[in-house]
Amino acid sequence: MMPMVELNNLSVTYKTKQRHVTAVDRVSLTIDERDSIGIVGESGSGKSTLAMAILRLLPEQAAEVTGEVQFNGTDLLSLNESELARLRWTELAVVFQKSMSALSPVHRIGVQMSDIYRMHETKVSKREARSRMVALLHMVNLPERVYDLYPHELSGGMMQRVAIALSLMHQPKLLILDEATTALDVVTQGQILDEMLELERKLGITRIMITHDMSVVASACNKVAVMYAGRIVETGLVKQVLTHPLHPYTQGLLRSIPSFTGEKENVRGIPGSIPDLALLPTGCIFASRCDHAVELCRQVNPDETLFQQGHRVACHLVGGELAHAH
Ligand SMILES: Nc1ncnc2c1ncn2[C@@H]1O[C@H](COP(=O)(O)OP(=O)(O)OP(=O)(O)O)[C@@H](O)[C@H]1O
Ligand code: NI
Predict the structure, then answer these.
(1) What is the distance of C-alpha 110 from the center of its chain?
(2) 74 Cα: distance to centroid of ligand 2 (angstroms)
(3) Whose CA is nearest to atom 12 of ligand 1?
(4) Could you tell me the CATH number of the domain that includes residue 64?
(5) Engineered SS bond to 100: which of 105, 159, 161, 203, CB 3.0-4.6 Å?
(6) Could you say which ligand is closest to the alpha carbon of residue 64?
(7) pLDDT tens per residue, range 86-114
(8) What radius of gyration, in Å, describes the C-alpha atoms of the chain?
């Protein structure tokens, strides 16, 4: 299978006068066509920064980006603004938790959708645009009347459906969702995810899905990458990583979800918090919170080790020379 996205040693450092914060640290990752990869990790681990770097949405002065983002053979980091503009919406699209706050409160939803549509499809008449937008609304299970509503007249679930409809407008190949369904109730979230999966199958979309919810990954992704303090500590097929998590951080994340252990008494978070990203330790970034850490972990940053079927882990205690002490 041809990889669609290849991240090679991608790093992002936010630079202010006082501090340099490395929010993404030498991330390498391959995403194949039609993959749906969940990016998980606690707040502040760099998930959104990673997405923004891929989409080239970071402020150029404040955020230094190094490495490569190969997308179908083109390094997105080397494109100029007009080359990028051609890819946005048509090849790459994104839905944020609050995408709709970008819409004007004083214009009807449909008119704004049509305007955005006609920016790329300049030859389309207003009438044609309307019927195309109504078809899009139907695609995300919204009735035609939504076209004539104002943003404040929509519920949260309707908002996110409109945002998803907007992102699918030009049939992008890669869709990035950043906590796009997080704020919704469980039932609405489940419905939207089901609709997404069906649309993806129809349209052949590849998806990167940022979430802090492992159950969303379990139900809506085939691959997962676990981020901790800017690094990917474990990645692989969902069916493998969620059933046989190898990194102590992934194990901790899964332990904190009742439905994965089935034992309510065992539920606990991971004590401690993410280290200051301006002062990264020399050893493993997780060492200070890891129950199993040994001296080597505090001194040497572990390389990624490959297990089977692309299951990779960055931990000295897994598969490496110290594996038996684990
Ligand atoms: N514009 C910015 N300037 C400086 N630091 C930033 C900026 N944006 C994010 N950061 C820092 O980068 C780190 C990663 O943030 P990011 O938003 O990517 O994490 P996240 O995993 O998406 O978190 P969350 O789950 O809370 O959305 C954090 O330490 C954050 O404070
Ligand atoms: Ni985020």
Answers:
(1) 27
(2) 26
(3) 23
(4) 3.40.50.300
(5) 159
(6) 1
(7) 899 899 999 998 877 788 999 999 999 99
(8) 21
Which residue has its alpha carbon closest to ligand 1 atom 6? 14
Secondary structure of residue 157 in the 3-state scheme? helix
Q: Are 11 and 67 in contact (CB under 8 A)?
A: yes
- Per-residue model confidence as pLDDT tens digits over 281-291: 899 999 999 99
Query: How many angstroms is it from 191 CA to the middle of ligand 1?
Result: 29
Owning domain of residue 182: 3-91+173-268
> Of the residues 130, 148, 171, which one is the last residue of a structural domain?
171
| Protein residue with its CA nearest to atom 30 in ligand 1 | 44
Count of all residues that appear for the chain in the document: 326
Ligand 1 pocket, mutate which of 13, 14, 18, 177 (most atoms under 8 A from CB): 14
How far is residue 307 from each of residues 26, 84, 225, 240, measured CA to CA in Å?
A: 20, 36, 14, 11
Residue 302 counted as domain residue: no
232 and 177 in a common domain: yes
